[in-house]
Queue: 2 jobs
Job 1
Amino acid sequence: MHLVTILKPVKQMDFYHRELETLDHARLGQLQDERLRCLTRQLATNQFYLEKFHRARLDLQMLHSAEDLKRVPFTTKGELVAEQQAHPPYGRLLTYPLARYSYLHQTSGTTGQPLKWLDTREDWENWMRCWGYVYRSAGVSEEDLVFCAFSFGPYLSHWAAIDGARHIGALCISGGGLSSEQRLRMIIESDCTVLVCTPTYALHLAEVAEGMGLDMRSSAIHTTIHAGEPGASVESVKRCIEQAWGATCFDHAGATEVGAWAFDCQAQGGAIHLNELEFIFEVINPQTSETVGEGTRGELVVTTLSRAGMPVLRYRTGDLVELTTEPCACGRTLARIKGGVLGRADDMLIVRGVNLYPSAIDNLLRALPSIIEYEVEIRRIAGMDDLLLKIEIHEKEPFSQVEQSVLAAFRSQLNIRVSVECAARGSLPRYEFKARRYKRVAG
Ligand SMILES: [Zn+2]
């Protein structure tokens, strides 16, 4: 049984640029091609792509349309990292002389060596536009007070979120350098209306608030916006966040090398919009690299159209998505991805012959209200992954009872057997940025 969640009222359907967001398919294609031609002209001074085209025996001048783009080889993260290692510090990835750049950030290095990423003023404006879509489609306006619960540091998404809020005219507060308790007090004292953080951290903040005797459902927060992990589009995670905050939870997706490339909308239809105004998207089979159609899960490939200072062409994001062009109730014509980012292409587990992504486990465990936090140990035994779940539970519940519910849920929903272990309250790590709940251990 699920608790009925009473959310604060959602504002009227809002757009960042209604005319562009509702373009018909043919006109949208023309607009993408125009922007691609504009990017192509700038690429003539980008050494990395000039060489890439040369190696593929392609002439840069052939790149006129999204159709031509399909002949261009993919760009991978490994390739960008290798380029920066071979030609430190930035690789030959810059289109313009260094003096033209104003912003330098770096990736978190979750999946390897961090990448340094530079933006010109024009490129940063592109980021602001992308965030404009994220905020406005969630109904955020100049009347709102946005709280960004991030550590900041060199991470691009944190600064883009705060500048994006200013761009749409909202008042905003940086939550950098504060403890969770201080952040909660600030949210309440300043009557913040919008919370931006990872899904995991929204849940952690709610847990800390409970310990402080605070009920965040009575705070002014009416909207929460998340990225960094698949969580906010995972049904039971979304429900947990909405229950804890009494607010509507919105997902979006982005990457330092690309931009904020997808956004949720007020129709809340379980799929988020691809920003086809600023990017060209393709979905491919990660093994064969062939394009996959609607309704088939594949890896998202992105080309940035308006970030000429450090562009990426046909960039393999590693994110697994399922495309749909079914009309959305919000009126936008932009394609969507069902369930947001479903996982990472390299995160797939094979548990007793069943292919499984961490988001499926997250969805299952977050639907069990007795579980506060969890961690998963993966052992490779005879070519297959074996899972040990460490769970923190509410003290009032006997572990054996919770264990039985977990085992039953895994059996009935995922058809796999797992082991469950009880972790002491507060012993498992909490995450502010990207959660790392899955640990591979020697078999
Ligand atoms: Zn929509």
Job 2
Amino acid sequence: MKLRFLGAAGEVTGSCILVEADGLRFLVDCGMFQGGRDAAARNRRAYARELGPIDFVLLTHAHIDHCGLLPRFARPRHGAGSPPVYCTKPTADLVPVMLADSAFVQSRTVARDRRRTDLTASSPGRAKASRFRKAARAQATETPLYTAEDVRRLATRLHGVPYGVEFRPHPQVAVRLHNAGHIVGAASAEVRLADGGRRRTLLFSGDLGEDSALLVRDRDPPPAADIIVVESTYGDRNHRSLADTEDELVAVLHDALQVRRGNVVVPAFALGRAQEFLVLLYRLARTGRIRVPLVFVDSPLARQSAEVTFAHLDAIDEEAAAFHAAERDRKLPFTLRYTESVEDSMFLNSIRSGALIVAASGMCEAGRVRHHLRHNLPRSDCAVLFTGFQAAGTLGRRIVEGARSVWLFGETIPVRASVHTLGGLSAHAGQDSLLDWLRAVPRRPRSAFVDHGEPTAAHALAARMARELAWSPIVAEAETTYEI
Ligand SMILES: [Zn+2]
């Protein structure tokens, strides 16, 4: 059997593992690379890459770094058919929403870059200064990878299956999906197959959540497996406890909204984090610990994600169900507005005080949050509150690491707002929690791989696995084929 990590090895995005056994070939996830100057070019290369025939795809969840390149299978190409994609039912509902948004963002980015290239051509002075950078960027994004039509076609290949029920994506293979407790629909995949006359079980963790998460139900215990691939986003650290996180949030909101009388901008992933943050606000406002005059969710994608998330009541946590009921019955302890149009979004720029603005993207690489940062970062009475992992090379990471100024919309924006990171609100398990999941595996696997982590995180988790579980984990390297 062969395993090849086509992404999310030495980094946290671009998840895609190619598995080959006895003539069978399938993928686990097919995600986009995010963050860093070369992300667009890497996605372009990955999208165009010849993978050969693929029998099926197992998709762990609907975050774009796991599903963002799936439309490569929208049409048969290079003589190969388009493989079916298996995932949970909530994921099958979310993927078309996420991919349609991705297609839209790509078309807008291409249009913007074209305009920029035209502008550059008409002002030779500037052209000289940044000719190479602009040319590279224009080349990297000259056409979108896929369109809304491709997304519609891909959606017909999605098959939603329930957690815990065995299904056969291929006559040689049996699969069960287990709740990974990360976002609604997120799964770990247990795969049983024949390999050279032997039966083998593989377990792909997907992204694992913390058991204290407020949005989705706690993850299932892992099954036994011969080969385990585990994520390591937070493989080198633990999160703060939920109680500490609540205290921290209470302090930040009080200071920015009531003392300094500014706004608070919360960059959040539209899917998962935005909803979880609202549940946390609800929990604190209901008990009178915070006073938030106005909460805006400035992300149509977050609204759509919320609709799908709360439609799957069996998959969400009690606290989230209570929030949903209060919202539906108009009994929330704060005013919550979802802004749709660009005009409504721009109106938020005129609010000077008392607004809490939740907007995507979570790492500030795209989306409406960039406008809110432009208006609020230079103001010392405002706060920016990060709620999730900031990958290397992203604008979010630069702000978190204390940049004095950032480059936004062609100008230098000073950072005078206070910057905070909520330690305990990650949708990803911290180091101890990853170890707990691994410890719960019923028997020692023959092989274990650590992926989906920056090198220090992946190696730190592998070191603890070796020390405390006596496993011999391999930190996955990109583009390396492992024969097992
Ligand atoms: Zn994820």
